[in-house]
């Protein structure tokens, strides 16, 4: 994989930001190829085919997909086929990469819905299996299984309804697990249990992401962290600033 990454990164094709080559993103054996043109993408794919053939490996074309991101509200039509090992890749509008749902319009509503459903399953499982446990045990389980909100720090473009649906479910999951009344104060119950509310959890996730990106030695992450106009980092710093709107909150 290191040889393949070096071969791809040494090419002058694909996406470049601030002079940094971002034509491939890799985690273990999962790889994403990025290019602003089909010609560039074909060249990157050819390098992958040659490198794989040289090591006696063959890519699983059925698990490989092609996605064309929209420029604003527009998306190219009548796209030429992208061949991988002489097989045309399926063009999709949505793909799950490392557990995170990516869409061609850069929206995060689909991934928020994925996490909302996953949180609902975890919350109901805890409430059902640990109903006879003490409050302390239930609170510990909630903190361990319901506050992770996988990849939530990457959400930067979503509608208010999707975000509120997840917040309401987060609050209701806590009520169900602890056996609290449905319309009790959300801020009060979290304060009494000394547990982070939804907004506090999101702020911690975003602060952790910003800290790790800016401290990383990876050249791509370092480039992102050094950009003051980075939309993701700006969102993490601006969107999740706490605002006091009253003495108590009811959800």
Write a structural description:
There is one protein chain. The protein has 251 residues and is mostly helical. It is 47% helix and 11% strand. The chain contains 9 helices and 10 strands. Helix 3 (109-129) packs parallel to helix 5. It is elongated, with a radius of gyration of 22 Å. Residues 241-251 have low confidence and may be disordered.
The global form is elongated
Radius of gyration: 22 Å
Note the main sheet: 2 strands, antiparallel
Strand residue percentage: 5-15%
Low-confidence stretches: 241-251
The end-to-end span amounts to 49 Å
Task: Classify the secondary structure makeup into a structural class.
Answer: mainly alpha
DSSP E strands, number: 10
| Topology order in helix (H) and strand (E) letters | HEEEEHEEEEEEHHHHHHH
**Mean pLDDT over the full residue set:** 86
- Identify the strand order in the major beta sheet: 1-2
Helix count?
Answer: 9
User: Helical residue percent?
Assistant: 40-55%
InterPro entries: RT_dom
Protein name: Reverse transcriptase domain-containing protein
Domain Reverse transcriptase: 1-102
Tags for this model:
single chain, 251 residues, mainly alpha, two-stranded antiparallel ribbon, 47% helix, elongated
